[in-house]
């Protein structure tokens, strides 16, 4: 009985302690945004969190409260990948509260997004690591970084953020992201779990001493995570392309059989001296190279300068491919290559996007709305970002960080997390050739968990929206039919559906 009373007293003291510290910082409130003249459906906050005051390392976030019930709904952290890409990609192009309409001469116009993930959750868009988006450090040597440091820095951010927003400490918390965030999410989740253990251990030790004010770190109410078309494991991801392009009808059956035989089913096998296999893989690359790697259904314009590009010259049927219910068109041009085709992220330095672009000369990027809007001094002021003169221009995917992938395969992280009771949704736009679903399907299966919900269609708006397979330990794999790499951009309605169901713990 004694421990119960003690726990009660501790929790009362704790809540008192946090009650007298500040709640949501008023100075971070975003009251208006250039391009939008309506009323915000919920409260928005933005600003910097100092994760290392001495070195002056600052991560910038944009926080959107839930439009339903902010005090009850979960808090979700969103991370875009790269490495080096700003999470404002998610905010502007994927599941943010606004749809951005590009205007030829004036600035973008913002319309409310009926499929915003803020319909059912509080959501934090974080520019991470420092050097990305609006996040910065006063010491540029901090722009040389890696997986481990990014995870500890992001955990430091979360701790400070929850101290600034104590009213959200008891909400369920989830971590989400896509692409290279397939590395960010599990490594951060592990950091959170470890950090929570340490905090609780310290609290317990401190129970006997009555000095409860010493408890400075909040416990994060972490429940689970979501990853879309995420990088996971170099072998699984590396082997994914050949079965994908075959299944999609992008190579001939003969070439598939030839490749299977010459590579003995192992397509990810660098410099193994197997010339026959290399030759088959080269043939496949020639076949699929001209496609839009992010969505094989979408056009990709090579050797077309950005300014010379004209949507009007496209056959309308092209523009309608993969169409779904959304008020504004998806981006038609993006980076033509994320990283060299068929090569998963390997240990070591990950080339940055401008370097890759320079190599492959694919001027296939559209970041115009985001770049114009986020570099407008009025917008930067409204979202409490430092001025251009201080931290430079906002760029969708920066080349100022030097990033080393050093965390290895994510599979052991997924195993630890799912076996510890954290729920995981691994979703995949099934027309993405950058991180094809075939890899995610294979590695989730390789975990060896019992199938508890056998492969079946899942529905959205009375239609098949994709397929799902559920495993024991709350691991769910889900495809989104006809979607490219950035699922909520291509399929916003379907994305909001599976997102809501996952957060609510409902069946897909
Ligand atoms: C807001 O902008 C829309 C066009 O985007 C316009 O139709 C509407 O009249 C404007 N409303 C106000 C209050 O200015
Ligand atoms: C929001 O959720 C809280 C906590 O569950 C509840 O007390 C409150 O009544 C809810 N508010 C509304 C408007 O539903
Ligand atoms: C930046 O950090 C590096 C590594 O910690 C340090 O050696 C260097 O002196 C710092 N530079 C400045 C200008 O503070
Ligand atoms: C109590 O908590 C503080 C802050 O977490 C810590 O520094 C201190 O070592 C703890 N005291 C004991 C006796 O463990
Ligand atoms: C998995 O959990 C074990 C036991 O808690 C721990 O020692 C190990 O470091 C964890 N591995 C990863 C990759 O998180
Ligand atoms: C799965 O998650 C639910 C909560 O949604 C939890 O009650 C259940 O214990 C979890 N199952 C496992 C095997 O972790």
TrEMBL record:
Cited function: Probable carboxypeptidase.
Hydrolase listed as a keyword: yes
GO-annotated cellular components? extracellular region
Please give the organism. Thlaspi arvense
- Which superkingdom heads the taxonomic lineage of this protein's source? Eukaryota
Q: What is its main location?
A: secreted
State where the protein is found. Secreted
Gene Ontology molecular functions: acyltransferase activity, transferring groups other than amino-acyl groups; serine-type carboxypeptidase activity
What is the protein's name according to its record?
A: Carboxypeptidase
Q: Does the keyword Signal apply?
A: yes
Q: Which UniProt keywords apply?
A: Carboxypeptidase, Disulfide bond, Glycoprotein, Hydrolase, Protease, Secreted, Signal
Coiled-coil positions: none
| Gene3D superfamilies with a match to the protein in the record | 3.40.50.12670, alpha/beta hydrolase (3.40.50.1820)
